[in-house]
Every structure is written in C-alpha cells, then in structure tokens.
Amino acid sequence: MLSLSNKGLRLLTGLLTLSLILGSLAVAGITVYLVVLAVQGNYSLLLVFPEGLQVTQAVRSASLGSYLLYSILLVATLVLGLFFLFLLRSILRTLGEAKGFTQELPKKITRMGYVLLANAYMKQLLLVFAFNQDLGDLSGLLAFRFQLLPNEALYALLLLVLAGVFNYALALQREYEQTV
Question: How far apart are CA 98 and CA 168, in angstroms?
Fold first, then answer.
C-alpha cells in the first residue's frame, strides 16, 4: 500500500493551514476593497479568470445593486474555495491520525465534490454577470461562452465517483471484519 510518512502528511497539512490563513486574509482584504469601492461610488468589478482575479482592467457595473450582487457572489465563491481547502486539510489530518481509512473519508470527499461543483458554476455565473455589464475598452477584446460542463465540474464528478469507491471499499471492509 502506498502511504505518505507522518512527516510528509504534517508538511502537507502545515502547507494547507498556511494557505487557509493567507487565503482568509486575502478574502478579507478583497471584501474591504469591494466595500471601499462601493462607498466611493466606483463600481468596478473584479473579473474572475482561470488565472485568478483580474484587478487591472476596469469593468464598471451598471448600478449599485448589480455591483453588490456581484461582490457578494464573488466573496461567496472565494469562501467556497477556502472551504474546499479546509476539507482537504481535514482529510489529510484524518489520514495522519488514523490507521487506514475511516467512515468520515467518503463523506468529506463527497462534500469536496459538491463544493467544487458549486464553485465551478458560481464562477460561470460571475462571468455571465460581468460580461453583461459595461466592458468599456474591453468590449471587442473579451468574450464569454457559458460552458455546460466546465473543467472544475468534471473534477467534482471525479471526486464524487472516488467517494463512491471509498464508500464501497469501506462496506467491503465491514463485511470482511464481520465474517472473520
């Protein structure tokens, strides 16, 4: 059986902990930035691209209401990403503390799959919303096409299948333990 040493798991868990701390600080900073922009009356949207957030190009929102809706959806998307990292860290901690797989592993992987699926479509919704605003100079350069099955959704489906496999393996393990 392939396994990581406790040192390797501790290192990965520490790295994910650091990522969660830095990510939380970044989300808090982005939230403050969005609130400051709203107070100043500058309704510039932060675009979400596969490479990350785009701050340099200004896409102006048509109204305060659409700006607030977009900002709330953006922060919720970022918080879902942090929750995904939290679940991954939780799985690594469980693997480091327990010998073998526990009943919680398939549940956590299933949650990760659903969070990733929701995050994939929330990003799509953010882009649809942003491209319906005033793009200004970017109107001829950028275009968006809604994808029915984005890459993150495929990864989420893979995680859900993996959770089913682990669930089945645990059921087989329970059956084996009862026969011995």
Answer: 19
Q: With b meaning 16 or more CB within 10 Å and e meaning fewer, what string describes 131-148?
A: bebebeeeeeeeeeeeee
Hunting for tokens 């932060």 — which residue is that?
A: 46
Q: At residue 1, what is the residue type?
A: M
**CA–CA gap between residue 100 and residue 94 (Å, rounded):** 9
pLDDT of residue 26: 92
| Number of CB atoms found within 10 A of residue 80's CB | 17
pLDDT tens per residue, range 75-97 = 999 999 999 999 999 988 888 77
pLDDT band at 1 (very low <50, low <70, confident <90, very high): very low
d(CA 68, CA 35): 9
Is the pLDDT reported for residue 112 higher than 70?
yes
How far is 85 from 154, CA to CA, in rounded Å? 18
What is the pTM (predicted TM-score) of this model? 0.81
Q: First-to-last CA distance in the chain?
A: 22
CA distance readout (Å), 9 to 38, 86, 98 = 43, 15, 12
User: How far apart are the C-alpha atoms of 23 and 78, rounded to whole Å?
Assistant: 9
Alpha carbon distance 75, 52 (integer Å): 13
